[in-house]
Amino acid sequence: MAKILGSITTSHIPLIGKAIARNLRGEPYWKPFFDGFGPVHEWLARVKPDVAVVFYNDHGLNFFLDKLPTFAVGAAPKYGTADEGWGIPALTHFRGDPDLSWHLIEALVAEGFDVATCQEMLVDHGFTIPMALLWPGGGDWPVKVVPVELNTVQHPLPSPARCLKLGRAVGHALESYDEDLKVVIVGTGGLSHQLDGTRAGFINREFDLMCLDKIVGEPEAVARYTILEIVEHAGAQGVELINWIAARGALNGRVAKLHSNYHVPISNTATGLLLLENRG
Q1: Which residues contact 206 (CB under 8 A, 6 or more apart)?
Q2: Is 233 a catalytic residue?
Q3: Domain total for the chain?
């Protein structure tokens, strides 16, 4: 049976991609952020996952406002990247796991989630930057991937409570998969930030730290917020928190916090990192 090892949630700011490409990890501006990933790299090297299920939000590369599903699951044999205009180099394509993808899709539909199924799919910086942070160095990726895309762009957005239920349904589906796979869950985005309007540059450290704390042992306390309440507390783009909530939902049973990091700012965003291990 598939085994869920744990979850890693982290930010996906485009500027991080430029810093990686320009090898700026050791510069004073970047060092506190990149240094936070050491324990995560050690954990990944120890547990050696086979597959990463990645909860993320698309920024217009694969979906646009004319066709934007609430939830979408990739079912492709591979996932490419493309130029988004941020100056981030294209990365080696990601290997998919179509059999696992279809298992998840069938299970989610049976649970009442009407997901879009993507047999061809591009992934943008919301997906690629976290992957490059978790497995640095370039070359072929050591894991297969299943992208799970959540709408954070076109209102109405899925509620945090609904996203927690989505994550739990994904977790149950993984645990019922009849293949000996080790799975890591990845959630990307945030934390608090707003890119435009009169609150451009808004960061709410207190709210971010509360979420980092509560999501470990009491995810329902974070999921009880409405989307508009998250916008109020975390900024218009802070709604990416729903990816973290979904990732946490996929961990069923006892969870242990192994590592976290919080750093302000990168660009105009509060960055967060959280490593949770699934103890069953």
Answers
A1: none
A2: no
A3: 1
Ramachandran angles phi, psi of 235, nearest 5°:
95, 165
Instruction: Kindly name the residue from 12, 59, 103, 193 that is annotated as catalytic.
Output: 193
DSSP β-ladder status, 71-74 and 144-150: antiparallel
d(CA 250, CA 166): 8
CATH number of the domain encompassing residue 168: 3.40.830.10
Q: What is the mean pLDDT of residues 131-135?
A: 96
Lowest mean pLDDT among 194-203, 207-216, 217-226: 194-203
Is 155 part of the annotated catalytic residue set?
A: no
Q: In angstroms, rounded to a whole number, what is the distance separating the alpha carbons of residues 203 and 150? A: 22
Q: Is the pTM of this model over 0.85?
A: yes
Range of the domain at 147: 3-278
Q: What is the pLDDT of residue 145?
A: 98
pLDDT exceeds cutoff 80 at 280 = no
Can you list the positions of beta strands (E) in 78-180? 78-79, 94-95, 116-118, 144-150
Residue count of the chain: 280
Query: Which segments of 126-171 are extended strands (E)?
Result: 144-150
Q: Does pLDDT of 25 surpass 90?
A: yes
Structure tokens at 87: 């100056």
Return the biggest CA–CA distance within the chain.
51
Q: Which of 1, 4, 14, 42 is nearest to 188 (CA)?
A: 14
* pLDDT over 90 (residue 271): yes
How far is Cα 146 from Cα 99, in angstroms, rounded to an integer?
Answer: 10
Q: Which of 12, 59, 103, 125 is catalytic?
A: 125
Q: Which residues pair with 3 in a beta bridge?
A: 182
Q: Tell me, what's the pLDDT at 228?
A: 97
